[in-house]
Design a protein that fits this description.
heterodimer; A: about 300 residues; mainly alpha; MetI-like fold; 2 domains; 17 helices; about 75% helix; about 0% strand; B: about 325 residues; two-stranded antiparallel ribbon
């Protein structure tokens, strides 16, 4: 709905709003504001709790509108704890290796799907699409990882998630919107497909690449299940799994490996909130900048899925 | 999913098949080179596990490997169907999935309709940005927060006490598992899932609204007769996709939220697969359960697609 059209509707036709309409508008706005509150409050609560004294948190759970007392001790603790640090290190390694792989594989797959005239296109396309509807499932995948010798290594988090068919379809649609004539003139100038992909297609679909980076990045950053079944050593676990241990399983994984148990106990509650903030805020800072591109990705996925 | 028809050039067509194959490879060698790593990936991480499904029909022993384990036919399926938990698992899976569809599916449509009625662009965009946020929060964090809020001295029991209930740990009581699961699902997905409906709404011809206004239609009538019909194709496709996943309940979330005291309502096929397979190492039985789950999903996808094609002439394939 563009602005222009609305002006015409409102001024040109001189439509007066009835009382019922006004009441509806107010209620509508209130409902949406309530929804925003329900969405934001939990994160605000976590932020407040991360600065609050541990003893207060133990006694009162769940309701905080402002930090009670103010301490940054939990953050200091989080930055010093070996397991939390190794959690961040591991997920950064996974991201660093995964994202380039993800992007190039998706780009290649999208390019192949967007090209026409190959004799093998149909069978290959079927082979790719089939995996969207049917798969081996949890146990065969697990046994496969063991067979390939990836068990208890970070590669088990990187390789199985190397490409998502859904994202490849998003990429294909972006590539299809690049004018065919650009490709043809490049062919005439003697360029091969590799040069076309990297020198022509890639620079032109940068917005899509940015969204794909976000999707893959958030996917890896938030994943915990594969790490929980493919990894054995605590030192290899990414940060989400460390959080799961301390927040959900209530295990004393932190105490076990920390040199000074007292210090951990002193911040046992607030350190949970500090880790939540440290892992969630980076993602929440990025997505609003890419928001306008989301529509494209979602549309493509649903219509062509 | 239509495939663009391949039109071989006339020179191509006259050649024998093998010669065409060679010519095709020569002409498109770089395209095949680009797709090669993806094919290798698919074989290693998608099709090899599919071959691994045969252990559902074998008595798999890790020391023997998949190939050398003995065939047992449908024994594991029979074991599973006679399992005292079979009906409980099926009931729970369908309940959680059905409730998710019943409440979770219309929620983003409703949000999109409400946002569509907002004429202040800045307010609309702010609401959108905020409601997208939970989608980017990890399940571990969401479930941790749920756990904190539902503890005996947490926020939700406090609210319930205020309205005359008794304080208790909500996650330990089977009664509250579904509401917690469904509501948090809506919380996490409502904004993100509304994107597609908002996009469809912006594609509706504005002149229709003007014409309706001139004819004296009020806002509700406009929504019922213009907006909703305009959304129908999108709703249909998303509904088919959702039905194809009817037994794919969010097991990662259930694994994070459930505990033995709520198994009665929360244990579903995929969490059972997880426990029998990865905790008790009954690989074959667990694979059979997983395969059963997948097959039911595929059936549902095909059935919904068929019905949708018959009635609305729009479908996936």
């Amino acid at each position: 709905m563009s602005k222009k059209q609305k002006v015409i509707i409102h001024n040109g036709m001189e439509i007066k709003k009835s009382t019922g309409d006004k009441i509806f508008d107010v209620i509508n706005a209130l409902v949406l504001i309530a929804l925003c509150f329900v969405t934001l409050y939990p994160m605000w609560y976590v932020l407040c709790a991360s600065f609050t004294e541990n003893s207060y948190l133990v006694a009162n759970q769940g309701v905080l509108f402002w930090p009670h007392g103010f301490t940054t001790g939990s953050y200091k603790m989080a930055f010093e704890h070996p397991l939390i640090l190794s959690g961040y290190k591991n997920i950064l390694i996974v991201l660093g290796v995964s994202l380039p792989l993800n992007i190039f594989m998706t780009l290649f797959c999208g390019y192949f799907l967007a090209c026409k005239g190959m004799m093998w296109k149909k069978p290959i396309m079927f082979m790719i699409m089939f995996t969207m509807f049917f798969g081996g499932g949890m146990i065969p995948a697990y046994l496969n990882i063991r067979d390939l010798g990836l068990y208890n290594s970070l590669w088990a988090l990187i390789l199985p998630g190397m490409i998502s068919v859904y994202n490849s379809i998003i990429c294909r649609t972006a590539i299809e919107s690049v004018p065919e004539s650009l490709k043809e003139s490049a062919y005439i100038d003697g360029a091969n497909d590799l040069i076309i992909v990297f020198k022509i297609i890639l620079p032109l679909i940068m917005p899509t690449i940015a969204v794909l980076l976000l999707y893959y990045g958030v996917g890896h950053w938030n994943a915990w299940f594969n790490a929980s079944i493919y990894l054995q050593d605590n030192e290899l676990l990414p940060i989400q799994n460390i959080m799961r241990s301390i927040l959900i399983a209530n295990s004393n994984i932190l105490n076990a490996s920390a040199a000074e148990n007292d210090q951990v106990n002193e911040f046992a509650e607030s350190i949970k909130y500090a880790t939540i903030i440290l892992t969630t805020v980076p993602v929440l800072c990025i997505y609003p900048y890419l928001q306008k591109y989301f529509v494209k990705g979602v549309m493509v996925g649903a219509v062509k899925g | 999913m239509t495939v663009n028809p391949v039109k071989p050039t006339p020179v191509y067509k006259e050649e024998p098949f093998l010669k065409r194959l060679v010519l095709d490879f020569q002409k498109h060698k770089y395209k095949y080179l680009l797709i090669l790593p993806i094919i290798i990936y698919l074989i290693l991480f998608c099709y090899k596990p599919m071959y691994g499904l045969v252990i559902a029909f074998k008595n798999y022993r890790p020391t023997r490997g998949i190939w050398n384990s003995k065939w047992v036919g449908f024994m594991w399926f029979e074991t599973f169907f006679n399992d005292p938990y079979f009906w409980r698992l099926l009931r729970n899976t369908f309940s959680i999935s059905g409730l998710s569809i019943l409440f979770g599916f219309p929620a983003p449509i409703l949000l999109a309709l409400l946002l569509n009625e907002v004429h202040n662009d800045k307010f609309k965009r702010t609401v959108q940005t905020i409601t997208y946020m939970p989608y980017f929060i990890s399940l571990v964090v969401t479930c941790s927060l749920l756990k904190i809020y539902t503890m005996e001295n947490g926020l939700f029991p406090a609210i319930m006490e205020f309205f005359g209930g008794t304080r208790q740990n909500l996650l330990a009581s089977p009664k509250y598992f579904y509401p917690i699961y469904i509501l948090s699902d809506i919380w996490q997905g409502i904004g993100w899932n509304s994107i597609i409906y908002l996009a469809a709404l912006s594609g509706i011809d504005q002149e229709q609204y003007e014409a309706a206004k001139i004819d004296g239609a009020n806002r509700l009538q406009q929504v019922l007769h213009i907006t909703l019909p305009g959304l129908m194709p999108t709703i249909t496709i998303l509904f088919i996709l959702r039905m194809g996943n009817i037994l794919n309940v969010g097991y990662e979330k259930i694994l994070l939220l459930y505990n033995p005291s709520t198994y009665e309502v929360a244990d579903v096929l995929s969490t059972y697969t997880y426990r029998t397979g990865l905790e008790n190492q009954q690989y074959s039985l667990s694979t059979a359960v997983g395969l059963f789950n997948t097959m039911v999903n595929v059936c549902f996808l095909l059935i919904t697609n068929y019905i949708s094609k018959k009635t609305t002439e729009s479908g996936l394939f």
